[in-house]
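Notes on consecutive records. When two proteins share a document, each keeps its own sequence and its own token line. Never mix them. Below: protein one.
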Amino acid sequence: MSATDFHRTIVLLILGLGAALAVSIPAYAQISPVVTEADIERARRETPTITEQDVELARQKYALPSDADRRSAPQNSPNLEALPQPVAPAPVDLEALARGYAGQSDAMTQAQGLAAGPGLFIFVSLTMPRATLQGLVGQAARAKAAIVIRGFANGSLRDTVAQVQGLIGKRQVAIQIDPLAFDRFAISKVPSFVLVRDGTRPVACASGSCAPTDSFLRATGDVSLDYALEHMQRAAPSFSPATELFLKRLKG
């Protein structure tokens, strides 16, 4: 191929490429749509317009009922007064229970502060058989001894008061809830009987205040109060004045 033919071929290729580009540019330009004023106006006509009248009609249609409407509407709610009522438990006579406590205030004072005069305490649990509890409560009332329990029955003060009231009835018995007293006299089993010597004074201990070990006697077992006192009298004759005092009350 001569130089002239070579140059002619190059010129033809350049011209062909330019023509191809000129054709393709309009094709790409048509891909992006053009939004005209007519399109905007048509979209405006097709979009609904909400007027003040439309808002007012909707407010009237979905308005909340007035007080008059509520009063005139049928009552579909159940009549609570007609529903079955739970059986109300008998009220606990706290005043009567307090009178029982007041009758034995001296014994309670001795239990708390170990004051002057011998003290006799019966440590029990409300989970003990009821017959056993009633027997001990009756003996405590005659001997002017105090019944001591560790805590509330079922964790409830009301349940405790109800059970205690059922046990003491009209008798005057001091019944204390005193968990520290169980520690003070090292009570690990019930029933336990503790006789505190006259003139005992408390000493410091882990539970706050305790009776000196030589100032009280302790007996444990499912026995009557008089049996426990007679056992103490035989085991510790030095406590005879105190045991005789309470035995005399029991027999009198």
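Protein two starts on the next line and is unrelated to protein one.
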Amino acid sequence: MSLRPSGPWRTRCGICASAISAPRFLIPALPFLSLETIPPVPAFPLLLPAKAEDEVLSEFIERCDGFLLSGGPDVDAKYYGEENLPFNEEISPYRDHMEIFIAKKALECNKPIFGICRGIQILNVAMGGTLYQDINSQMKNTIKHSQEAPKWYPTHGICIEKGSRVWESFKSDRARVNSFHHQAVKDVAPGFFITSKASDGVIESIEHGNHRFAVGVQWHPELMWQEDITYLRLFEDFIKAAGKF
């Protein structure tokens, strides 16, 4: 029996999950675990359990058409050649291993991958980039990046590189985004390029130059699209790329 859904929902999107055990078969899940923030795009979501052997993760790589790396805790600094400093907060060893494995394999197979918040950091680290462990301690004159405003509300501006996928989603070289992070991309991984920055120089999005769709954003568009449909466009672009795989 085929595990691929039929009709417009035939595109299968792997979404990272918390540290749970994985049976040796795919587990269909409700969109974004039934959270109301799920973007209304035609894709069938599949949970990627964090506590899984590489053999199981490889099966997900084969069966999924695209991968969404969601937000979460800090990345263990060992993955980019540093010791964890005092301001590095909670880490998830299982998620770090799983998501870095998924990111590397997805890029290797040219399968679409979209990283949100922690996801942009995972994409960068997986391919050889580094992070600021704490932007307020390691950068000068930073603006507020951990907002206390409503989650959907954009609290700071970004400047966008024309011709990038982010630019295509906004159709503008400027936009405003929400912000919930204290770490950020530092040295950009080979093959990726910066597509937007905040006014303080914090990197807000990156994109791979030779990949079907490999995009990371530091903001949370999944919390914004219900207030402004503009923030849905990157999801639509991602699913469109995955549907062509």
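For the record: The helical segments are 54-63, 93-108, 118-126, 135-138, 165-170, 233-243.
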